[in-house]
Amino acid sequence: MKHTVLECRKLSVRFGGVQALHEVDFQADQGHITAIIGPNGAGKTTLLNVISGMVSPVSGEILFDTHTITHCPVHQRNSLGMVRTFQNLEIFSNMTVLENVMTGCHGHMPLAAWHSLLRTPKAIALEHRIKEQALEALEFVGLTGLNTVSAKELAFGQQRSLELARALAARPRLLLLDEPAAGLNIAETQALAEMIVRIRDTYQVSIILVEHDMELVMGISDAIMVLCFGQVISRGTPGQIQKDPQVIAAYLGSDEDE
Amino acid sequence: MDLSTLLQYLVTGLTLGSTYGLTALGFTIIFNTTGVINFAQGEFVMLGGMMSVFFLHSLGVSEPVAILLAVTATTITGALVERLAIRPVRHCPAINLVIITIGISILIRGIAMILWGKDTYALPSFSGNAPVFFLGAAIMPQALWVLGISLVLLGGLKFFFSATIQGKAMLACSFNAKAASLVGIGVQRMVLFSFMISAFVGAVGGVILAPITLTSFDVGIMLGLKGFAACILGGLGNPFGAAAGGIILGVLEALGAGFISSAYKDALAFVILLILLFIKPSGLFGRDDAKRV
Amino acid sequence: MAYRRDMYWLAAFFTVLMLAPLAMPNNYYLTVLIMCCLHAMNAVGLCLLVGHAGQISLGHAGFYGLAAYTSAFLSTTIGLPVGLSMLAGIGAGTVTSVLVGLPSLKLHGHYLAMATLGFGVILSILFTETIDITGGPSGFVGIPGLSVFGYELTNDASIYRVVALGLCLIVWLAFNVLHSRIGRALRALHTSEKAAQAMGVDVARYKLFVFVLSAFFSSVAGVLYAHYLTFIAPASFGFMFSVEIIVMVVLGGMISVPGSIIGAFFLTVLPEFLRAFENSEIILFGAILVLCMIFLPDGLAGGWNRLWQRLRAASAQASLRKQI
User: Fold this and answer.
1) Which chains, if any, share at least 3 CB pairs under 8 A with chain B?
2) Are C124 and C69 in contact (CB under 8 A)?
3) In chain C, whose CA is at the least distance from the CA of A167?
4) Residue-wise pLDDT tens digits, C63-93
5) Where in the sequence is the domain holding B62, given as residue range(s)?
6) A46 and A166, same domain (yes or no)
7) Which residues, in sequence order, are bridge partners of residue A59?
């Protein structure tokens, strides 16, 4: 039976006079990779920002499982199991690779501050578990052996993997990926596609993907939604989307994509 | 409370506020080219006043000449500060530069103390002490000098930034230093200019204020803080916001001193500043930075 | 690993502090050492706040002073026991930091600097003007000496031991925080508040936490200061002291706790050495500050690291030459 993990109802967002999203309905199913595509300026990243809580909608509602999270602050969405990555890498450049990933565990492994202050046995035990999880996530994305390297010294592609590892360490149930292939070459993109599928299958994570690379999207998505000028113009499986005349018109009719 | 008292306080506030505004303008000019708050700005103001007194008494020249010498000397000091202390570390983080300006302010204050001692000095008013009466308020001629010179200076700077090639180049640096250097603007020279202009503006402020409030080696600290406060009040980076911020601060302070308590006038100015900051976090005339995720 | 290395450092530092009085020819040096420790308490707090969390404060002298005056007032004017007054002083500084931090920490960069600076200036004016309570510009005299659990410490050597122990406890707390999820959260919000939030860090809460923790350290230093000197004056808690603490941290290399301590010791001892030059001490102080920042941009700790690496490279080259 299909189970909806995230549901957006009639979301609208306005920046000044610009209507960025207009009554968008959106669903992501449990264990699926759901892609959001559309021409530049269609409102894809805005939708992702609304879902993750970085932008507030003017109207509409967001449901995560059974919780209404429309006005829930970003960090609480993390504790509920929603984690995102960023289009312009937001790694913590003042930390080592391992510390970056350990920070990913922050939301789902809470502890009262006084434990940390006094470094109680509980705090030490937690540090060990956090480190184990972080090492596991690093291994999963293939960054083993770089633990003590400063994050800013990694190559660009490695920094992308690091962001993924950090998100994985948070043990998400819903992972939001904002253009994860931006700036990667063809080989790296292929590896990324495999990794996204592997993440879904290994951890039973639901994934929402905003991406420009059509080959990547068509290759791995279970469902696709197409946005154009802040409105939904189509949704369906990759096969259905590729044949939809409205989608073709939106892409060909608009300015050259990228 | 009658109208003449209110007017009296208002004039006092405008006079003080103009000099805060000039100090704030100095902060803004350097901030715009370097991204650094120059904590030595208050010392430029102090140098303007103290050197005028010094030249007047020790060289025996007339007051206008002494003032001209003092302003020139302070401007040169500004250039030296940039050349000797700021330029060698221009690639360091902003916090390092800020600390260097703190070091410089301590240094300048120390030198002033050794040269001229800890006494308080007065500079003679520019045109006598016979007050002019206006709607029952006594206005000292020096207050008119302060207001007039501040306005002229503000107009001059406005002209400089909007109508001269040098001024436009400096503006360009403040928007985007890299792009400015790509179109052939010597960014380093602009930083030098900004320090000279700031020192000049500060010195003029110090000179016109000295006959009213007296001057000593340590007046720069409080003036610097007030100037910084005025900058923030007006929205950091906006020169005319800074000038306006200074005037608002001065008027608030004068009203506070008049109606509440002169001991707490500085505290009052800062309390109001804090309240304003908490209500409007980017200053009165500042733009909210557009957030991009 | 890293935590263990810091604990070794702390153990060594503690030993040096405890042995230091043996090498001191007279009480004057002990006084300087006590001041070093009190300043270091302030610096360690600001190292967490400014260096790690990236939040500036130009008002910590206010918490330092508030704690000192509160404890002085309660013990001297009201006549409460010293221990109780000290606790109340620490409480006053810490609680005030919550009230100041809540609205201020919404601000960023220079605006935060201005808000904390404004708060510091307001407090310092209050210390000067509320003459009935604080004694005004001439200071608060006759504060009872330090006592621990009702046991009065009469000589400087025992006071020094209490202060040094206090500093080591503060350093221990600081290390614990830095090597925990809190420390990572602080460094995370320093580089990217968005990403920190996305990782589940309640940014506002952690900023407040580190602000209050650093104010707590300053408050502890404040009450110890008041009951050690038995005399306090507003000049010690002004804007310049807030700036001085920041300078100590920057001199120490921003993110290094040992560096901040060394910076604090350096900046406390320096004026004492310069006192021999009488009037020119302030000039020398300013000049040394400027020169340090020009030639040691990453602080004393950074300069030390570079020197160490250069020496190692030189010796490696020398041994290489020998082999050839």
Assistant:
1) A, C
2) no
3) C199
4) 999 999 999 999 999 999 999 999 999 999 9
5) 3-219
6) no
7) A12
